[in-house]
Design brief:
By secondary structure, the chain is α+β, with helices and mostly antiparallel strands. Helices cover 32% and strands 26% of the residues. It contains 19 helices and 24 strands. A hairpin with a 3-residue loop joins strand 13 and strand 14.
């Protein structure tokens, strides 16, 4: 039976990192940062009401501080007024529980590519809860959430900074546990988070080791590994605060001189149990190296969503692109872990409610993009369709950038909501030796997506051959389909072309068989009227006069598309147009070509014309080779 192996991914600066992902924490961008966790409904209500920045109550308690604020003496547990007295330029922001849950969910989703089960909460053992529910809605509505946060215990309800991954029997697939931690650390870093990683025989052992373990300077990373069956020895050098005990119990043990876990393990069990309180059973199991607490599997959402709320309103596209760059990078990391790609990105930019209504009023030009939402208020919404599903971060950002640069914000933005929909399996391209020396085939889908956002998806596609009598209708622009449909259409086109070649070869061998009609090399967007034509007639093309040297009848179509109001009856011909060039200037539409008598004349070459049999009028439709 394989020994259970659990990875704990601890994100000690998660709340601070979420604030920095929104943009600069202060006008200078270098102020120390303190974060208050919670207040989901209050923060949304303040931002939706048009407040430039949510006011922080002086009695509010700080939950997380960054390294810069810690150097000034600011600590978690201080009130806002106390911290502001220590550091006048301290930046104080709020992070909601919903944002914390979403960030942990992203890490769990990325980690699932390396293990069987990921979790952001623990299950129940013996009727006692080993981890509180991590749902943002239920947690935010609990009356005691503030008390739990103020306790700042590393166990139970706070802090919310850990993701667990079950790698039992899976580490050998990536080269061992050390290689797995290296790969996992890179994936978490791609999301913009700094993590401490540890592997042990249980989730609480691994979490304690990741939070309080001394890092090995030789490895050069934030990772620790407890050998199988050696969990008790691994947590022995850790401080007693690493155990699931209340803050008061840990302080009492320290005053008694019990500083480390191994010191507590050497004491008589009866005396220890009398001092540990309601968590006695859990602590005694950990001291023995046993940690059977189950993981509650994290359910991966089908749609990938990213949302950022701004403390300071944003009024320019450059700041929005800075935020969207991070959002698309996180979406790309989640898609890569799934082995999937997205075909559409839906963008919603929430406007400041009061300013948007004041500036827009009843203007109808912005009605197509401005939508009213009960939760987010007025917002600018648009979507970008990918002709081919994409998963790279740069490829996802390029079409959004092309679209956003052509849109003017009607009011300051207070948030961005990005949804990746139309999820499909990622296209797997086989590697080849010439990839570095030739055009990268992966760049074409990104170019198509950018062109679709720039000029419109209806103007980007591939040319297809259609069965039609009129030359201008024999090709059409078809939208780019998925890989399977493209392969089927390509196979059908190749089969049809092979059949046509075989029929042409058989017809060429038969005596008196008709040769296929010649085709024009280039067709004009709009035919140019020429009037009535004949040999020697003078026609005007592009403000120049040309003479028709000769005409050659090609084909006739009679009553084509007779079921429409405008059926076509035409005679097609090839016309040789010649014109003398003015002195000192080369011909505009052609080259110098020898005429029948050998003299040189300026000619625009062979033109493709047709005569409308109903009116007798001729039209220049294109050019032949």
């Amino acid at each position: 039976m394989a020994v259970r192996r659990i990875v704990a991914i601890v994100l000690p600066q998660l709340a601070c990192e979420l604030v920095k992902q929104r943009g600069p924490v202060s006008p200078s961008g270098k102020a120390p940062l303190a974060v208050i966790i919670g207040g989901d409904e209050e923060r949304r209500a303040a931002l939706a009401a048009g407040a430039e920045r949510e006011p922080q109550a002086p009695a509010a308690v700080i939950d997380v501080v960054d390294d810069e604020a810690r150097r000034y003496g600011v600590r978690p547990g201080q009130k806002v007024v106390e911290a502001a007295a220590l550091v006048a330029h301290l930046a104080i922001h709020r992070v909601t529980f919903a944002e914390i849950d979403a960030a942990l969910g992203r890490v769990a989703e990325v980690a699932l590519g390396l293990g069987a089960t990921a979790a952001i909460q623990l299950g129940e053992q013996g009727g006692s809860r080993a981890g509180a529910p991590r749902s943002g809605a239920s947690r935010a509505s609990r009356a005691g959430e503030r008390a739990a946060s103020e306790a700042r215990s590393p166990w139970g309800d706070g802090p919310y900074d850990t993701v667990w991954l079950d790698i039992t029997g899976a580490s050998h697939l990536v080269g061992g546990e050390e290689a797995l931690l290296d790969e996992l650390g890179e994936r978490v870093a791609a999301l913009g988070h700094r993590a401490r990683l540890a592997i042990a025989d249980g989730p609480r052992l691994a979490q304690a080791l990741a939070r309080f373990g001394a890092l090995d300077g030789g490895r050069g990373d934030d990772a620790l590994i407890a050998p199988p069956g050696k969990g008790a020895q691994a947590i022995g050098p850790l401080p007693v605060q690493a155990l699931p005990v209340e803050r008061e119990v840990a302080s009492f043990l320290v005053r008694l001189g019990v500083l480390r876990v191994e010191d507590l393990a050497r004491l008589p069990r009866a005396q220890v149990a009398a001092r540990l309180g309601p968590r006695t059973t859990e602590v005694m199991e950990l001291l023995a190296g046993r940690d059977p607490v189950p993981l509650l599997p994290f359910e991966v959402p089908r749609l990938i969503e990213e949302e950022v709320l701004f403390d300071e309103p944003v009024e320019n596209a450059e700041s929005l692109l800075f935020v969207l760059r991070g959002m698309t990078s996180r979406i790309a990391s989640r898609l890569s872990a799934r082995g999937e790609a997205c075909g559409r990105l839906n963008v919603a930019i929430a406007y400041d409610r009061s300013i948007a209504r004041l500036r827009l009023g009843d203007r109808e030009d912005d009605a197509a993009l401005l939508l009213e939402d009960e939760e987010r208020g007025p917002s600018l919404r648009f979507h970008v369709d990918m002709p081919v599903p994409l998963s790279d971060a740069g490829d996802l950002l390029r079409p959004i950038k092309a679209k956003l640069e052509r849109i003017e914000l009607a009011a300051p933005a207070v948030g961005v909501h990005l949804i990746a929909s139309r999820i499909a399996r990622a296209r797997q391209v086989q590697l080849d030796l010439s990839r570095d020396r030739s055009v990268d085939p992966d760049s074409l889908p990104a170019l198509l997506a950018e062109l679709s956002a720039e000029i419109g998806a209806e103007r980007v596609g591939v040319l297809e051959i259609a069965d039609a009598h009129r030359p201008e209708a024999r090709s059409r622009l078809a939208p780019v389909a998925d890989e399977a449909a493209t392969a089927r259409s390509s196979a059908a086109a190749r089969a049809r072309a092979a059949a046509e070649r075989a029929a042409a070869e058989q017809g060429a061998g038969a005596e008196g068989a008709e040769q296929p009609a010649p085709e024009p090399a280039r067709l004009l967007a709009q035919p140019i009227p020429l009037g009535r034509v004949g040999r020697g007639a003078i026609v005007a093309v592009d403000r120049h006069l040309y003479a028709i040297e000769r005409l050659s009848f090609v084909m006739r179509i009679d009553a084509v598309e007779w079921w429409t109001p405008t059926p076509a009856s035409r005679d097609y011909a090839r016309a040789w147009l010649v014109s003398g060039a003015p002195s000192g200037r080369a011909p505009r539409l052609g080259e110098l070509r020898p005429s029948r008598d050998g003299a040189s004349s300026s000619s625009c070459g062979e033109a493709w014309i047709y005569v409308d049999r109903a009116t007798g009028e001729a039209f220049l439709q294109g050019w032949c080779e």
